[in-house]
Amino acid sequence: MSKNKNPVTEKSGLSTNVILTIVVVVVAIVVIGGVLLFNRSGSENNASSGPAVAAEILRKPDSHVLTSAPDDKVTVVEFLDYQCPGCHSYYSGLTKQVEKDYAGKITFITRNFPLDMHPLARPAAQASEAAAVQGKYKEMYHALYDNYEAWALAPDGQNVSTDEAKARGLFDQYAQQLGLDVDKFRQDMNSPQVNAKIDADVADGEKAGVQGTPTIFINGKEFDAGNVQTFQQLNDAFRGEVEKELTK
């Protein structure tokens, strides 16, 4: 579901082998080449572009909030796929630190957008939503990304894993470590409630024009970092846009 096939700035749907190789290498300048996915045909180097998406599409009453600001002056919404290498790299290089640095200053919301090309993306989304039923969404969100290589990658480190049994076993371990009722967690993962929540997120993402992951909106406008080459440039572009919105 990628928008533009650019070998430097491409979203997932990319060549899975290429992107995963980049992620595993964990060299920032190389990683950024595989995951700075905002260079699109016809776009300019603006940090946000296009018309704003209606707030009621991007945020629902049951949307998960990682950090919130009392005035909701700046709202960041990320549509993500837990098995997406680009999403994991954005988490490691940008959003995990943004969550800490802007705690209490911005409202940061995450929503599900599992891609068909990632076979464990939906089970991971189910795990996050099942944890949410017991009040531990944020903790499971971090556990899934912090342990990405353990469940999301195949043993060769070059491809996404298709081993759902292994992944589910690890998800159970994370649930236990978080103090969840593991039996309830397992039941909720496959419940109509959890699956309806994921489907609703995907439907809203499609209404918002999401075609790949990660896709981030800042106050309703899709974030477009332009032709950035490093995570420092990405951070500068993102934080610059957030600061601009904070000072309006």
Quick take:
By secondary structure, this protein is an alpha+beta fold. The protein has helices at residues 16-25, 28-35, 55-58, 85-101, 121-133, 137-146, 148-152, 164-177, 182-189, 192-207, 231-246; strands at residues 48-49, 64-67, 75-80, 107-112, 215-218, 221-223. It contains eleven helices and six strands.
List descriptors:
disordered N terminus; 248 residues; globular; Glutaredoxin; alpha+beta; 11 helices; 6-stranded mixed beta sheet; 49% helix; 6 strands
What does this protein look like?
The chain has 248 residues and is α+β, with helices and mostly antiparallel strands. The chain has a single domain, classed as Glutaredoxin, CATH 3.40.30.10. Helices cover 49% and strands 10% of the residues. It is built from 11 helices and 6 strands. It has a 6-stranded mixed β-sheet, sandwiched between helices. It is globular and about 50 Å long. GO terms for molecular function: isomerase activity; oxidoreductase activity. Belongs to the thioredoxin family. DsbA subfamily. It comes from Saccharopolyspora shandongensis. This is Protein-disulfide isomerase.
